[in-house]
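Researcher: Please predict.
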Amino acid sequence: MRRIDTHVHFWAFQPNKDTWITDDMAAIRRDFMPKDLKPQLEVHDIVGCIAVQAEQSEDETAFLLELADRNSFIKGVVGWVDLQAANVDERLEYFRRFTKLKGFRHIVQDESDPQFLLRPAFLYGVSLLERYGYSYDILVRPHQLAACHKFISHFPKQRFIINHSAKPNIAKGGREPWASDIEAIAQYKNVYCKLSGLITEADVTRWKLSDFEFYINHIIQVFGGDRLLFGSDWPVCLLGGRYRDAVDIVDRISGRALTSSEAEQLWHNNASIVYRL
């Protein structure tokens, strides 16, 4: 079965710039480039990946697009553009020429304003994405899901992808209100969800497979096989394990819940649809 990893990052590590990679993240305080990822993809029969922004700048978008041009297994890029800028339409028109640019993301999880997604300027910027055929990746934490629900309601035709299943607190076994909020969001049929980034929401020093069962099974139940995506969150996943662990956690738990056709959707087909590969 062909597979696509819909969530990886690349960076040339710079301590002064990459301040979010703190001293206690020694495993990822170095460069991570396509040559480092490719062997992992090959081992797991993963035919391609989506490179996702980790820095909020157009330079980051250009960096990822350049890597994608040089590496055919990078099938698409989720970049960054200032969606609140007065000239956002002009910038989207500029990026239209890059065929591997599939969508955009803003690191909303780090915004102090819990209503950030509902800012008028941000709503306007997102309203333009459908015109250009771009998807939008939503990166939020559980306390931001109420605003996220209202945000999504503004755009019934925009393709949205929830990153990292909205980061439930797996380490503490937190279920509510995450479970109810994510179920409400799943009612919007234009919203997909990534089974990604879960290792780093667990106790990275002593997690076990059963820690993830409730969360993955809940996402499967509320979104259904036709709106699920796999993402490793490499190299961030290395803070809690190996690339193989990110694959195996999703594979083993989803394998008990999905039919073979649904599994193909999760691992490949849905990525092709939502990112227009």
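Model: The domain at 3-274 is CATH 3.20.20.140 (TIM Barrel).
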